[in-house]
Amino acid sequence: MRPEEIELQEFSHVTPVQLRFNDVDILGHVNNIVYFALYDLAKARYMEAIMKGRVDWQKVESVIANINCSYIKQIKFGEEMEVKTRCIHIGDRSFTLRQCLVEVPTQEIRSICDTVMVCFDPSTGRSAPMKPAFRKAIEDFEA
After folding, report:
1. What is the pLDDT of residues 27-56, one digit of tens each?
2. Contact assessment for residue 87 and residue 81, using Cβ atoms and an 8 Å cutoff
3. 111, 100 in Cβ contact below 8 A?
4. Which residues touch 93 (CB under 8 Å, ≥6 apart)?
5. Does residue 23 have a pLDDT over 90?
6. What is the DSSP secondary structure assignment for residue 107, as one 8-state letter?
7. For residues 49 and 141, is the Cβ–Cβ distance under 8 A?
8. Where does residue 4 fall: left (phi above 0), alpha (psi -120 to 50 degrees), or beta otherwise?
9. In angstroms, rounded to a whole number, what is the distance separating the alpha carbons of residues 15 and 86?
10. Whole-prediction pTM value?
11. For residue 29, which of 96, 69, 63, 78 has the smallest C-alpha distance?
12. Helices 132-142 and 32-50, interaxial angle, to 10°?
C-alpha cells in the first residue's frame, strides 16, 4: 500500500501519540521498533472505542497473527504525531486493521501498518470464531 492510495478521511479512529526522547536513536529519528509500540497503543484505544470502554484487559480475545509495517519517511523527536486506525476486513475468525502514523499539522503519512488479528481461545490455544457481539461492535463503529 502506498500513501497516495490511502484516504485518511476514511479512518474511523485517531489516537494522538507522544514521542519520548528515548524513542530516538543515534541517527536522530524515531527507532523502527517504537512504531510497533505506537501502533499497539492505538490498537488498544481502538478496541476501547469499538467496545465503548467495556474491555477486560485480563482476558485474551484476539492475538496478532501477522503484521506488516512500511516506513515511508522518518519521524523526528518533537514532531506532533497521531495514529489513524480502521478495520479493513472482517472474517469468520479474524479481522485486519490498517493503521497510519501521520504528522498532525500536514497530515503526511510517515508509516503504514496492516495487522491481522485472530480471535483466540486461551483454553485451547487455538483460533476461535469471532463473537457476534464483537463483529457487530466493529461493524457499527466502522459504519
Report:
1. 999 999 999 999 999 999 999 999 998 877
2. no
3. yes
4. 118, 119, 127, 128, 129, 130
5. yes
6. T
7. yes
8. alpha
9. 11
10. 0.93
11. 78
12. 100
